[in-house]
Amino acid sequence: MSHLSNIGTVKDILSRHGFTFSKKLGQNFLINPSVCPRMAEMGGAAPGVGVLEVGPGIGVLTYELAQRADKVVAIELDDRLLPVLAETLGEFDNVKVIHGDVLKVDLPRIIEEEFAGLEVVVCANLPYYITSPIVMGILEAKLPVRAITVMVQKEAAARICADPGSREAGALSAAVSYYAQPQVLFGVSRGSFMPAPDVDSAVIRLNIRPQPAVSPRDEALFFRVIKAGFSQRRKTLLNSLSSGLALSKPVLTAAMEGAGIKASARAEELTLADFCRLSDQIFALKISENNGK
Hints:
The chain is an alpha/beta fold.
């Protein structure tokens, strides 16, 4: 059913299945015929590759992925779309649709059982309201995947792909850069969807690093420092950390000095290496403090 991007066809299919769009689920289906083939190609769908797709909708992107990859496993939350997908993807024997919430299903088990012997990539057109939890959930799970290619709100793409140490950087971009090398692939106008959202979108690709970008002594503390540092962007890093980590300013000043970071610095000025040195200094001071008790 290669004409899934035809708005008349889409309306007919949805009407026959009694489907209505859910604002709560952020449903906007792609109808631009040029977007999904490009996304599938740039997302790495190819022979020898298995694709984990999140939120297939009516299967427009799934169709393109299935034509290129050895296997596609699509996870769909909305059970009303299951009969729709059975119709639109009926011609493929290399597609499996799983009904479930990607934040709750056992992704390591799915990948192990469904993609044995294949390189794995993730591809998704994500609802705007849940972009960060899904992206970070997949990254933090440290799944054996080569890349994550997702379509997100244009502003979210800029935040996710911001270079550490730049004005646009934030806790999300720092966390993403720890696990992956992000890049914006191309923009997608709001008119490419049905119904049309109020904002434009962009497709980004996160190339998973073989090893994290830095090696903090305490990974959990490293992320706590990043989160606290960006929690109050109008304040200096010292003030934000003092509030967010419940540590005294003298202790934090000593940690910043030990990491070679000026007292007046703000979080967006720091690179991942800076955050790593800072969290290691805080870790060492806390260990020293505990040993002295």
